[in-house]
Amino acid sequence: MSDQQQEKLFNKKISRRQMLKYTGAGAVGIAIGASGLGSILNTFGMMAPEDDMNATNKELFYGRHQSGIATETQSHVYFASLNVLVTSKNELQELFKMWTPLAVRLMNGESISQSDANGFVPPKDTGEARGLDASNLTLTFGVGPSLFEKSGLGLSGKKPKELKDLPHFPKDQLNPAYVGGDICIQACADDPQVAFHAVRNLIRAASGKVSLAWSQTGFNSFPVKNGVKQTPRNLFAFKDGSANPNSKNKLDMNNVVWIQPGESGNWLTDGTYLIVRRIQMHLETWDRTALREQENVFGRHRDSGAPLRKLNEMDELEVNRLDEKGNPVIPVDSHSRLAREAGERIHRRAFSYASGVVDETGAYDAGLLFISFQKNPKQFITIQNRFGRSDKLNEYITHRGSGLFACFPGIQKGSYIGEALFSIL
Description:
Layout: H1 3-10, H2 16-23, H3 25-28, H4 36-43, E1 76-84, H5 89-107, E2 138-143, E3 183-189, H6 192-205, E4 210-219, E5 224-225, E6 228-229, H7 250-256, E7 272-281, H8 283-286, H9 291-298, H10 335-341, E8 347-348, E9 351-357, E10 364-374, H11 377-387, E11 397-407, H12 419-423
Helix pairs in contact: 10-11
C-alpha cells in the first residue's frame, strides 16, 4: 500500500469490513479493539514512512543513535518537558508508536498528514511550517525519572540506577515551573518555526495522553570562516562548547556519550543521558565588568576563545602554567580551569534564550539553555560539584531550571521510538 493510500484510510471513515480488507486482518484473525486502525497498521509496519533522501536540508531519523545529539548543532531549539496522562504501559507504548511516523514525516519536511481535504473538521497538521523545507530538523526523545514512579505504568523495574533527580548544587535557585518532567522532546532546526511546529504537532496529536509541563526556545548564531561553522557565542560573548568531544569520532563518542552494553539499563544501550539546565545570565552585572575581569572569569580570551596567553581556541588549556610573577595564568577560580580539573567530559549543545524580563525591576530573563549529553549523569555532577561555590562565574549566573532524561537508542526501520524500553528485560 502506498503512503497516499494509507493517508486516505486516515482521512475518511471506513467500515469494519473495509478495514479488514485493506489490512488483511481478517485473514490472520487480528481483533480490532479500542486501539483501532492505527494499531492494526502499526502491526503491519505500514505507518512508518522512509527517510526521504531527496528532502532539502534533511537529517536522518533512523539509525543506531537518535538524531540531535551528535548532529551538527542547529541554530534553534524548542525544548519541551511533558507530563504523561496515560495510566497503562500499553497506552504509553501506543503513544510512542503513534509519534514515530509523525516524527519521520516532520524530519522529512512534510506535514504530519498528507491530505486535509475535509474543510468541515480541523486539519490534522497546524500548517505553520507549510512551504518550509526540513531545515535540518532533529527530534530527540527522552524519559525522566518521574515516569518510572507512576503507578499503573509498570516501569519501576526498568528504571536505571543512574536515572534520578540531580542533586542540589551550590547556588541553585530552581524555579519549580522549570524542573523535571516525564518525557522530553528536543526539537532542533535551522528555522525556529520548523522546530516549534514539530513539538506543537506531536503534543497536539497526543492530546489527552500528555500535557506540557514547561518549554523553552533557544537560539545560536554560527560565524563561518573558510566555509566552516565556528563555535557559537553565548550572551556573555564568549565561545560556548570549545572543549566538546569530536562528534565524528566513534571512539571519542563511545567514551563520553554513548552508553555501551552493561553500562546502564539494557534498554539504554546506544542511548545517552540528557541534562538540561535553564541558567539565567545577569547581563546588567556582566555589562559593568571590565573585559580583563571577564576573561579571568572564563580563563579564556573573549574574541579568540583561546586559553589565556594562547592564540587559538583549541590550544591546550595549561592549568599549571605560571606567569612572570609566579601567579597562575589561568585563575584558580576560572570556569574553564575548574571544568578541566574535574577530570570529566560531556558533550554540550547549549543555546541562548531571551524571554523578556524577570520581574518589575526590568532585569533580563535571558541566559543559557544548557543541554549536555553524557553516558552517565555523574560526569555532569562531578563537573558541577567542582564548580561549587568557587567558580567566579557564579557571580553572574543563577541556575533556575533543571532536568535529567534518559534518551533512547536510535530507531530502526520497522521499529518505534523507545521500543527497547517495552521489549528488553
